[in-house]
TrEMBL record:
This is Aminoglycoside phosphotransferase family protein. Residues 36-254 form the Aminoglycoside phosphotransferase domain. Coiled coil: none annotated. Pfam families: APH (PF01636). Gene3D superfamilies: 3.90.1200.10, Phosphorylase Kinase, domain 1 (3.30.200.20).
Amino acid sequence: MGRMHADEHAIDTTLVRRLVRGQFPLWADLPVTPLASGGTVNAVYRLGDSLTVRLPLTAGGAGDLAKEARILTALDGLPVAVPAVVALGEPAEGYPWAWAVHGWLDGSPALEGRDAPARDLAAFVRALRALPADGPPTRRGKPLSDVDTATRRAIEELRRTDEPFDAAAALAAWAEALEAPQWTGAPSWVHADLMPSNLLLRDGRLSGVLDWATAGVGDPACDLIPAWNLLTADTRHTFREAVGADDATWARGRGRALSMAVIQLPYYRHTNPVISGNARHVLTELGCRPARGGGARLE
């Protein structure tokens, strides 16, 4: 990983040890281990065997910390595990923001293009939607037109790079998504950031879902993005059938996946290989990049 953000705060193991020792002396002697992560908002460290420490990299990420803690303490009845909020730390040792200690969840992050439990993922999405929609609105649950300018700007930026990229195909797919009817049903809970690195697998089953900072109430199409950022054509239709997505919701979900990918790729292509690699996977699945063994179909 390189430095991802111009305003990113320097964080290392020494800082984490000092913060833990100063505020939670009970854990002062536990080993602190940096975790390889594709995350763009927090630096994550394992603390002993049963805890993780999450420190926002920027002021924007710090603003979501309290919201995420409220959401995590309120969730109940999901078929997979979510992180337990164990403690919240305060600014200290030159670190300017609040930070969090969560319970450790066993499992390995999902990987795009590999076998993934489409039915488990659909069951999680449906269970989340079934919860009382009493949470805060999520910015990703708004109409796609809200990100039209940013998406078109990112497509143009990608067009000017050396990425193998079909801008015309991306614009056509984006126009199709914008034309889809908007959500008129009741808002529902959405995670809104179901990237593969936020999905934990154990023994081939979905066991946990991480990173709830963007969660809230909005358009359920937000949580269809794994159809393109994780799954392949072989399992995509299984997921769609199990999750019960109509044509309009499916089209909006496809547009959301496209928008995220074209915005992520130019920003992270030299600093975050996990996120940029996933963006390339999405664009390939959407037919906007050359695919190994032939072109991808827009589904």
